[in-house]
Design a protein that fits this description.
The relative contact order is 0.10. A hairpin with a 2-residue loop joins β1 and β2. Helix content is 38%, strand content 8%. Strands 1-2 form a two-stranded antiparallel sheet. The protein has 95 residues and is mostly helical.
Length: 95
C-alpha cells in the first residue's frame, strides 16, 4: 500500500514493502485510473495471448461509461449543474 502524501510503498506486518497499487479513493483519482485503462487498451489492444497465457483488458464501452459518469460527478461537485453545460444556442436575426 502507498502512503497518501508521496505515493511511497508502506511496509506490511513483516516490514516488507507492499507492491500492491494504491486504490483510488476520490472521483478524480478514479477518473485518472479509468483514463489510464482506456489508454492501455488504445495502445496495447483489448486482449492478447502469449503461449498459453492470455490477457483481456476491461470492456472499452464500459470504461467510457464509467468515465462519463465520473466526469459528471466531478462537474456536479464543482457546483456546475451539468444540465446544459455542453449545449450551445445560436440566434439568427433578420431573415
Amino acid at each position: 500500500m502507498a502512503d497518501n502524501e508521496n505515493n511511497t510503498p508502506v511496509s506490511n506486518q513483516n516490514n516488507q514493502p507492499s507492491n500492491r497499487p494504491r486504490v483510488p479513493s476520490t472521483p478524480d483519482e478514479m477518473l485518472d485510473s479509468v483514463k489510464a485503462a482506456i489508454y492501455a487498451i488504445a495502445v496495447g489492444g483489448q486482449s492478447y495471448k502469449i503461449g498459453s497465457r492470455s490477457l483481456t483488458r476491461g470492456d472499452l464501452k464500459e470504461l467510457y461509461k464509467i468515465k462519463n459518469d465520473l466526469e459528471a460527478q466531478i462537474a456536479n461537485s464543482n457546483n456546475n449543474t451539468g444540465l446544459f453545460d455542453d449545449c450551445h444556442v445560436a440566434i439568427f436575426d433578420g431573415r
